[in-house]
Amino acid sequence: MSYDIIYGKGFVKLTEDGFIPIIVTGSSNCYEYVYSSRGNNQRRERNFSNWGEWSGGQSKVFLTRKDIEDKLKIWDEDVRRTNQRYKDEGIGVDSDPTRIDGLFKYGGKTFTMRGFKAFIKNGIETAKTIEELSDAGLTLKVCAYKYHQPIIIEGFPKTTKEFFEIYAKVKEYCEKNEGYQIDITYINSVDYVLKKFKVSRKRTYINKSELKEYFIIRNNNTGYYYSRGTKKGLYWTTCKGFSRIYKTEKDAEKSMTRIKNRFFSYRGNNILETVKVDNEQNTSIIFDNI
């Protein structure tokens, strides 16, 4: 049984309230050939797709913020209704009623509506104008498309003005020629587009010497201090000086909560504690257990 995998997005911003929600997706049982120096030349397919034209809600090439909200609302209702039917029939039962059946994130986790809404919201926040796309070396193709037919009219806009001019011509052609539809996609590879849209996380360096006090996390079972977390697991240190520091106790508690939610073994009482480090007096005060 196949399922769809979403690898990323590259939304286009046409106006302050108008977007083309292009995402990168592919089927789990379809593969493509790619160049690889490691010798593995196959991977699951990756294609551009306009989420605005997916089923559920009105199908549109452009979506306003209101259109996006309406489409997500309809999706949410459909997903809950489908999951309730599965539950009643005793098949595909899941603890989360908003789990989207057949739609996976890249990495293997099933999308929930909460996660998908965040995905779409981030797509809006990171959307690029036609001019920004051009500056980044990305090019859109706007054309009139019909299956198994040659493309008669197409354009590659470099500005938003050019885009709407080309779009008007393509739309007129599609209206006068039966079976043709508007297709808007990137001519660049999916990997190049995702690379240009990738937003690097900015890590804020905290200088301990500038703080009067800060907070760290201690594991009472081992006496070690929390250093960092990765996809593979958690890293601890025996030295306070190499532990991760937090400006406030609240920040440290949030981190502790994430650790407990991820690893069951840390959920017991008195295992993890926040420790306040006073820089001026060089003393440590243990706060109440969480």
> What radius of gyration results from the CA coordinates?
25 Å
Name the overall outline.
elongated
Low-confidence stretches: 283-290
Q: Count the domains.
A: 3
Which sequence of strands runs across the widest sheet? 7-4-1-8-9
The class by helix and strand makeup works out as alpha+beta
Distance N to C terminus: 44 Å
Q: Spell out the helices and strands N to C.
A: EEEEEEEHEEHHEEHEHEEEHEE
What are its keywords?
29% helix, 290 residues, five-stranded antiparallel β-sheet, 3 domains, five-stranded mixed β-sheet, single chain, disordered C terminus, alpha+beta
Note down, in words, how this protein is organized:
With 290 residues, the chain is an alpha+beta fold. The chain folds into 3 domains: 126 residues, no CATH class; 62 residues, no CATH class; 79 residues, no CATH class. The protein has 6 helices and 17 strands. The strands form 5 sheets. A 5-stranded mixed beta sheet has the order 7-4-1-8-9. Strands 15-14-13-16-17 form a 5-stranded antiparallel beta sheet. β5 and β6 form a beta hairpin. The longest helix is centred in the first third of the chain and has 25 residues. It is elongated and about 75 Å long. The two termini are 44 Å apart.
